TrEMBL record:
Residues 1-18 have a biased composition (Low complexity). PROSITE patterns: TPP_ENZYMES. This is Acetolactate synthase. Its cofactor is thiamine diphosphate; Mg(2+). It is an enzyme of class 2 (transferase). Residues 1-53 are annotated as: Disordered. Belongs to the TPP enzyme family. It comes from Thermaerobacter marianensis (strain ATCC 700841 / DSM 12885 / JCM 10246 / 7p75a). Residues 260-395 form the Thiamine pyrophosphate enzyme central domain. GO terms for biological process: isoleucine biosynthetic process; L-valine biosynthetic process.
Length: 631
């Protein structure tokens, strides 16, 4: 969503500083030892006493505890040294990233895996600017993150002081909201409000920029109950367990009855309906409501890349992923539907293809918590500004009131859809896969070896699409990836955050050799933490998606897309103290995968695959979904 559209979700009234703070939750300690992560091992001091005056740095720590924060990701520097001193020995675990982008993406992965707000910290100047790509990643995918940055003292702002940058201005286009703290007495209220804004309505990243002298200033007892002079508002419901105040519902929610009744009649009378779910379904915790609606109304269902797992991948009504690399069944169903029920989806260009040819004959029902999304790309017949879960449950109730004799016969449509699924599954050359290691076969083997139960985190590129296509996801928050911004280098740091959020989960990082090297330094963080993340590199010695486009659309002129030199990923991992394997032939695949998964701690597996393999099917840029290249 554009910045004006997202900022529109932050323009009514929210007060984040009312009522007593919730009790701080003690941090959970994962089974792997947490030492060397930036804090004194084995030392925990009681939370700061909020009844008396304290420093700004201590205020930050206290608010983090109030919000139930267990993990923060960051790198210290001069402007945030007072904060790091306050963190020393506090019952908050700090993960020392090796690059601030890695810290931001780890916080993003933590938030996606847990559904709670992720927190990252950076110093002024280059530390803060290094966060920007990570924050933009969270912004485009609606992920709740609070970034705390230091800056030069207030007296030096605007003087081009050492390591000064306009963090407030630079971050504005890639955050849901941001703050520059100029009054130390406002610090508690600003921090609380930052968590409220990040988690409520359509979630997103919030940045709080704090000059160094604010960290060292003494903040009075009265500041804890002081509201901001200005107020920021969001609509929608507050995320569970966020410790934030109630946020008012969308305006006019009580007046949506007529729209819901109209939507129910359209669905009941449709002969070729499709349920189209986006990432908002997972954000809202609406996966169960989605499945129930699909089963109640017998709706073939497609979920975007960001919503994989919202509908079980083996459910008989599931069509697969739509769009540029979507299934034949999903794309044909979206082309021929007469009633499209879109929930928490933004009609992204990678899904729609040629917009005029997307669901051209459909009556569109669009449910979204962000009213700015309604009609932005496709005009809906019925627009329902509502949280995905609330909207789906209300729609189910309305459908229950439609008389049985008003329901259309869906059997011919279901027969066609099932025929598409049967005749056009995702496929690859299985005969070649006996002779050469193919990436699709690697993903299928990972699903077999993990029983389809792993939490999969990917980078961006061909491997990302193969991971989406050939591993079936059965629950929400099982597949984490950068969908909106398409951030190469996302996989490894996000997998670290995900493993900390879900210590009992089996976390797989499926990455490409190009994407992996963009944040390869976080292997040091992974080794230091001893996390049992298993990294599988789909190594085709190229920026594979770029090579594919050049192969298909640029006359096979491979300009700067194939690597002439690659590191030895096994030796590289071992240099970080991480066990590593290499797979070059199909005969090695099953055994090596199982050996890697059985190893304790982190493991890197270099899967050397066929370079010329393309991701198919593919809808050419600007083409309609029905014009997909099947292969």
């Amino acid at each position: 969503m554009s910045q004006p559209a997202k900022q529109a979700t932050a323009t009514a009234t929210v007060t984040a500083a009312g009522g007593p703070p919730p009790a701080a939750r003690p941090p959970s300690t994962p089974p792997h030892a947490m030492t060397g992560a930036g804090l004194r091992p084995g030392t925990e001091t009681p939370p700061v006493n909020r009844r008396g005056p304290m420093s700004g740095a201590d205020v930050v720590v206290q608010v983090l505890l109030e919000q139930g924060v267990e993990w923060v990701f960051g790198i210290p520097g001069g402007a945030v040294l007072p904060l790091y001193d306050a963190l020393y020995g506090a019952p908050i675990r700090h993960v020392l990233a090796r690059h601030e982008q890695g810290a931001a993406l780890a916080a993003d992965g933590y938030a996606r895996a847990s559904g709670r707000v992720g927190v990252c910290i950076a110093t002024s100047g280059p530390g803060a600017t290094n966060l920007i790509t990570g924050l933009a990643t969270s912004y485009l995918d609606s992920v709740p993150v609070v970034a705390i940055t230091g800056n030069v003292g207030r007296a030096f702002l605007g003087t081009d002081a050492f390591q000064e940058a306009d963090t407030f201005g630079v971050s504005m286009p890639v955050t849901k909201h941001n703050y520059l703290v100029l009054d130390p007495e406002e610090l508690p209220a600003i921090l609380r409000e930052a968590f409220a804004v990040a988690a409520s309505g359509r979630p997103g990243p919030v940045l709080v920029d704090i000059p160094k002298d604010i960290f060292t200033a003494t903040i009075s007892t009265g500041a804890w109950d002081r509201p901001l002079r200005r107020s920021v508002s969001c609509f929608g419901r507050t995320a569970a367990d966020s410790g934030t105040p109630h946020i008012p519902d969308l305006p006019g929610r009580s007046h949506l009855t007529g729209r819901l009744e109209e939507a129910a009649r359209l669905i009941a009378r449709a002969r070729q309906p499709v349920l189209y779910a986006g990432g908002g379904v997972i954000v809202a915790g609406a996966a169960e409501a989605l499945r129930r609606l699909a089963e109640q109304a017998v709706l073939p269902t497609t979920t975007t890349l960001m919503a994989l797992g919202a509908m079980p991948g083996d459910h008989p009504l599931f069509l697969g992923m739509p769009g540029m690399h979507g299934t034949y069944a999903a794309n044909m169903a979206l082309t021929e539907t007469d009633c499209l029920v879109a929930v928490g989806a933004r009609f992204d260009d990678r899904v729609t293809g040629k917009v005029s040819a997307f669901a051209p004959d459909a009556a569109i029902i669009h449910i979204d918590v962000d009213a700015a999304e309604l009609g932005k790309v496709k005009a809906p017949r019925v627009a329902i500004p509502a949280d995905a879960r609330e909207g789906l449950e209300a729609l189910r109730e309305a459908l229950g009131r439609v008389p049985p004799d008003e329901w259309a016969d869906r059997s011919p449509w279901l027969e066609r859809v099932n025929g598409w699924k049967r005749d056009h599954p995702y496929r690859y050359d299985r005969e070649r896969a006996r002779r050469e290691l193919l990436p699709q076969a690697v993903i299928e083997e990972l699903e077999r070896a993990t029983g389809g139960d792993a939490l999969v985190v990917t980078g961006v590129g061909q491997h990302q699409m193969w991971a989406a296509m050939f591993y079936r996801y059965r629950r929400p928050r099982q597949f984490l990836t950068s969908g909106g911004l398409g951030t190469m280098g996302y996989g490894l740091p996000a997998a670290i955050g995900a493993q900390l959020a879900r210590p009992d989960a089996r976390v797989l990082c499926i990455d490409g050799d190009g994407s992996f090297q963009m944040n390869v330094q976080e292997l040091s963080t992974l080794a230091e933490l001893g996390l049992p993340v298993k990294v599988f590199i789909i190594n085709n010695r190229a920026h594979g998606m770029v090579r594919q486009w050049q192969d298909l659309f640029y006359g096979q002129r491979l300009s700067a897309s194939v690597f002439e030199h690659q590191p030895d990923f096994v030796k590289l991992a071992e240099a970080y103290g991480i066990a590593a394997f290499r797979i070059t032939h199909p005969d090695e695949l099953a055994g090596t995968v199982r050996e890697a998964l059985a190893r304790p701690g982190p493991v890197v597996v270099d899967c050397v695959v066929r370079q010329e393999e393309n991701v198919l099917p593919m809808v050419p840029p600007g083409a309609a979904l029905r014009e997909m290249i099947v292969g």
